[in-house]
Fold this sequence. Notes:
413 residues; alpha+beta; 6-stranded antiparallel β-sheet; 8 strands; rod-shaped
Amino acid sequence: xxxxxxxxxxxxxxxxxxxxxxxxxxxxxxxxxxxxxxxxxxxxxxxxxxxxxxxxxxxxxxxxxxxxxxxxxxxxxxxxxxxxxxxxxxxxxxxxxxxxxxxxxxxxxxxxxxxxxxxxxxxxxxxxxxxxxxxxxxxxxxxxxxxxxxxxxxxxxxxxxxxxxxxxxxxxxxxxxxxxxxxxxxxxxxxxxxxxxxxxxxxxxxxxxxxxxxxxxxxxxxxxxxxxxxxxxxxxxxxxxxxxxxxxxxxxxxxxxxxxxxxxxxxxxxxxxxxxxxxxxxxxxxxxxxxxxxxxxxxxxxxxxxxxxxxxxxxxxxxxxxxxxxxxxxxxxxxxxxxxxxxxxxxxxxxxxxxxxxxxxxxxxxxxxxxxxxxxxxxxxxxxxxxxxxxxxxxxxxxxxxxxxxxxxxxxx
Length: 413
């Protein structure tokens, strides 16, 4: 076969292929050096093809050229899939925010703010906004202290606190949220004339709302748990046990949430340098503060830590009550199960004893002649003996069963 015959399909393809649209150097580098790839757009089939330019002066044999044609056909089928994977531009990530100024005034209508603009405006890092982004799980609380701001994420509150402004992220329009916004605005306006800095007052308002929500939720959980435990004292029902299981799971989740908040406050109290960094107003005014001069915020956080610890202790008591009730219920159910097993064993022993009586009656009821049938008093003797034997077997079996019960109790003790 001549070289012209081999290259005729390639020449025909080159003549009928339109002008190239784009070049993919990364594909060109990933293939052998003796091939030159260019992506074309075929308007007839709306697919991308690749042409292969073969070095005719390489001195290869006809078998090599045939393999090059096979490689060309394979590349023509694979490259459309690679070329169609164009990068997708990510959509703009927006956050809904409520802004508070230095006077405590805020906008009722939240505006969408681009996260990039927010990072540049408030001198943050991109990773700082992960926990306040939409859809992020807010079980684990956090308090990040930056040079000119604090980023707080506790329960439903995600806020950025600065020396003269507060930004709330992704806040809803429920009654509790509106009440918190009004309380925060009043606290920032400082109508009571407190000497605390702006950022400490904002932090105080946030912790007050968080602890109020924890207290309200704790009361609900404790009331529900006490009610179901009281009902289980009177009657153990399957429906009540299922409800107790659900309540126990919710109680454990709430305990974890309250414990994490308490641990956050305790860790903050253990770090004196972090407590000093919370005074953003003085840093803004370039006023140096001593390392141990943080009595206001320390007393504030200690009171919240004690309150949160009391909530955790109350929940732990309820959790222990639930566990104790579950253990008692398991003991009662085990005892009932053992009683049923003993009842079944006693019935089996009785059947065995009466079976021996029936065996004797069946044996003497056969049509076989024996000397007992000659005397009438043998009937009473046989019946009496069978009854005594049955009673003896039952007594021996029951005594053995009682002995096994005692051995099991001693082993458990």
